Amino acid sequence: MPSPVTPKPKRVSIVGSGLFGLTTALELAERGYKVLVLDRDLPPVPDGSSVDISRVIRPDYADEFYAKMGLEAMKGWEGEYAPYFRRSGLLCIARGHTHSYLETSRKNVEKMGLQVETLEGRQLRERYPAMQGDLRDAKGYFNPICGWADAQQSIQYLARKCAQAGVSFLTGPDGTVTSLVKDNDKIIALRTSTGTLLKSELVILATGAWTPHLIELDNIAISTGQPVGFIQLTPD
Q1: Residue 226, SS3?
Q2: What span, in angstroms and rounded, lies between the C-alpha atoms of 129 and 57?
Q3: Cut 0.90: pTM above it
Q4: Residue 16: left if φ>0, alpha if ψ -120 to 50, beta else—which one?
């Protein structure tokens, strides 16, 4: 006997309007699902990990599978998302004669048919005169297809696509999910900061580093961050 067809849920509730939440919402909406996205703010959420001044766009990764995904993503940045992409190239260098991550990363991009340029020592100084210090043992490569993206505008564009596809958004205190309401092992509703219960047949958490606030992740996963600084350059 054929397996019974599972009916579509009346509504899919997605908690989190970052990159993962919005792309999931758009895909489901295009497949005919009714989707509600909940978050504290309208996307782009100011302190979300998907939003920042910029994001480096590259297929240069030591993980071969990740490198392939990075190269596949370049099609989007060269196409639909081209207005938010700046092709500046990517320079990867390290001190010493060898660096395992850079060497593996280079092998991966070259295996995918990309051409990169080796740069070291004096070549680095000639190409980039602003680089100071002792570069005699610095070595690396330059990948011209890479660049950076305006992350905030990209998320704004993606959110507009979601709205046009029929995705609904609930923000502010009513959209701030504080806990999951369960019936045995099944999530049946979301509780917001106003105390409101929002029933949903299917809940997807796209909450990133905030996930431990909603489900127990002790000894399973931890949230980490990297500090990044920006310096205003002089005309020289």
Answers
A1: coil
A2: 24
A3: no
A4: left
